[in-house]
Design a protein that fits this description.
Layout (H helix, E strand, L loop, with lengths): L5 E7 L5 H11 L4 E4 L5 H12 L5 H22 L2 E5 L7 H12 L4 E4 L9 H6 L2 E3 L2 H13 L9
Parallel strand pairs: 1-2, 1-3, 3-4, 4-5
Helix pairs in contact: 1-6, 2-3
Length: 158
Amino acid sequence: MHEPQLLVYLSGEVHSDWRAEIAHCAQAHALPVDFAAPVTEHSASDDCGVATLGPETERFWHDHKGAKLNAVRSRVLLARADVVVVRFGEQYKQWNAAFDAGWAAAHGTPLITMHPESLDHALKEVDAAALAVARTAQQVGDALRYVVSGSLPSPKGA
């Protein structure tokens, strides 16, 4: 049976290498998956609006331009995505990640959330909209493997 090429949008926390871990898992299993993500370099993301559309003297308008230009990118990629994975970390509030999760849920795009158990209560509504809740990048990779090929992960210790 032909395995479909999937586009997986990886939203959320930018302070760890979880995106690379998921990509590595997909590559290790030769999954036909492409990945997309928001711009994760803070300065580029923060300054894209003024760098592209001109300077602002007030910080509010500087941020406003950047947020809107980032939203164009995010909406295009979210609309193309077959699956959206949203990672919530403990250190920062990821309001943009919550927005992406809501967008995916509202548009019927399959959603996988990933976060530590300590955030279960805070994210209960987001998790209720998700089709899977993972704790690790490996679990997300295994979920994508199952979605694409129907293959289960190898038993631990086997």
